Amino acid sequence: MAEKIYIIPLTKAVEKACSWRKSKRGVRTVQKFLTRHTKRIVKIGPYLNMHLLQYGRTRAPNRVKVKVEFVEKDKINYAYAELFDAPIEPTVSIPLKKETNVKPKEEKKLETKIEDVKTELKVEGEKIEVKPEKETKLKVEKPKKSVKKISKNI
Questions:
Q1: Is 35 contained in some domain?
Q2: Based on the number of CB atoms within 10 Å of its own CB, is 132 exposed (0-12), middle (13-18) or buried (19 or more)?
């Protein structure tokens, strides 16, 4: 994996944006800048995103120092951008497909109703049949809204 460091100016782009869209415009500017300079699909890391939105959506930083890693995944070239001072974490992970011939265990489907179930208990040689009672539904009453009528005495 190759790495490259860029310092991206955001001042001119952010000045053109509305006051409530400055950080969003900064994120788009970073993506456009890196796409233009790397000729790859750009993925912005979480630390860079948090740095751009650090002061809210109305104030964006003037410039950003970015470290870019170039990754190839499924014959597609990506540029993974992260803040220069961000802690080192594993970057874009490529999941490996494991081929196994083992089929997952089939789950047994039990479709029984409580009404149909009979349980038998043995107590000292005697059989006792116990039938569970039918389920009772609980009714929940909603509290009524009390509206007071105000009469105007003029």
A1: yes
A2: exposed
